[in-house]
């Protein structure tokens, strides 16, 4: 068997193990699912051993497969590290597409873009604003800045910050409708609904998840902030979003003793896909800038 062919088979085998299925490995590698399955079968035939137990639900390693996978992962990691070392000697260049949430990026990323562009003049940056879910495996972006926890096993994440979610209302709303004493009291209040919230119309608190309702729904966090400030309902979102109103006293944080755990901010990238240097320098740059912002490191704002 040609060494290049063997390297392809080893790569398919490793990604099938790491993603848990031939179809997920195929998406990651840009191949068809039948080809990945065939390549792994060819590797087993070449080695004259069975590496994987196959079932309709998942793949499992045989004892021989476990030993072989450990060696394959060592080889593939060494190859990747060698390529990265060579790539590090070349100045970052080329087009970098980054999928990013609108308001977070406008507030905390855009102010630093001029500095990044000056540091790396051979890099072209395409920031793709999208507050919905972006699938890096199927779309053109190399990176995604995402709020929330990683659930896709085919991706890797660099954590660059976190923030506190708060429940707020204007003093005018409170004067008219009163304050909820516990999360479940929100069922009896008008809430301003942000339609792209990952949990939908369920607001999460420490030890409680509450379905909420309201007469106004928006797909913009800025719009939600303005409507809350106008006294049209209770809002729920990042503390930094409502920081100005909290500082000047026009907004009050509600249910303080029920604040949920901090929400992570992460940069996502495809696992084991070769990473151009422009990707790595952007990740490091944004991580360093976010580290200097107290509101993005669990220290609150306002």
Quick description:
The chain is of the alpha/beta class and 302 residues long. It has ten helices and 14 strands.
Mean pLDDT score, rounded?
Answer: 88
Low-confidence stretches: none
The coarse silhouette is elongated
Q: List the total number of helices.
A: 10
Cα radius of gyration in angstroms: 24 Å
Largest sheet: 5 strands, mixed
Number of beta-strand segments: 14
Query: What sequence of helices (H) and strands (E) makes up the elements?
Result: HHHEEHEHHEEEEHEEEEHEHEEH
Measured by DSSP, the beta-strand proportion falls in: 15-25%
Task: Quickly give the structural class.
Answer: alpha/beta
Strand order of the largest sheet: 4-3-5-14-6
Span of the ends, CA to CA: 65 Å
Question: Which bin fits the share of residues in helices?
Answer: 25-40%
Outline the fold blueprint:
Elements: H1 3-19, H2 22-29, H3 33-47, E1 52-54, E2 59-61, H4 63-87, E3 94-100, H5 102-108, H6 113-119, E4 123-129, E5 143-147, E6 155-163, E7 165-170, H7 171-177, E8 192-194, E9 202-205, E10 208-211, E11 216-218, H8 221-229, E12 235-238, H9 243-248, E13 251-254, E14 263-270, H10 277-291
Parallel strand pairs: 3-4, 3-5, 8-11
Antiparallel strand pairs: 1-2, 5-14, 6-14, 7-12, 7-13, 9-10
């Amino acid at each position: 068997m040609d060494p290049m062919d063997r390297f392809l088979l080893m790569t398919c085998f490793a990604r099938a193990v790491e993603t848990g299925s031939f179809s997920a490995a195929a998406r990651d590698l840009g191949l068809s699912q039948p080809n990945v399955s065939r390549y792994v079968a060819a590797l087993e035939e070449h080695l004259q051993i069975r590496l994987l137990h196959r079932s309709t639900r998942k793949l499992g390693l045989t004892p021989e497969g476990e030993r072989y996978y450990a060696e394959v992962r060592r080889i593939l990691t060494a190859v990747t590290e060698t390529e990265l070392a060579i790539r590090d000697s070349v100045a970052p260049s080329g087009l970098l597409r980054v999928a990013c949430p609108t308001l977070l990026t406008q507030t905390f990323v855009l102010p630093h873009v001029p500095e990044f562009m000056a540091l790396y003049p051979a890099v072209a940056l395409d920031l793709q604003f999208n507050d919905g879910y972006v699938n890096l495996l199927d779309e053109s972006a190399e990176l995604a800045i995402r709020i929330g926890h990683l659930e896709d096993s085919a991706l890797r994440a660099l954590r660059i910050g976190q923030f506190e979610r708060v429940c707020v209302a204007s003093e005018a709303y409170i004067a008219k409708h009163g304050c909820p004493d516990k999360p479940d009291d929100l069922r009896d209040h008008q809430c301003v609904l942000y339609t792209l919230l990952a949990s939908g119309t369920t607001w999460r608190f420490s030890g409680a998840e509450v379905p909420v309702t309201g007469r106004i729904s928006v797909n913009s966090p800025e719009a939600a902030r303005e409507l809350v400030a106008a006294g049209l309902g209770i809002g729920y979102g990042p503390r930094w979003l409502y920081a100005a109103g909290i500082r000047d006293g026009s907004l009050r944080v509600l249910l303080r003793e029920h604040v949920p755990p901090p929400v992570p901010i992460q940069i996502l990238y495809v696992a084991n896909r070769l990473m151009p240097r422009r990707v790595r320098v952007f990740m490091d740059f944004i991580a360093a800038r976010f580290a200097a912002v107290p509101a993005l490191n669990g220290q609150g704002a306002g």
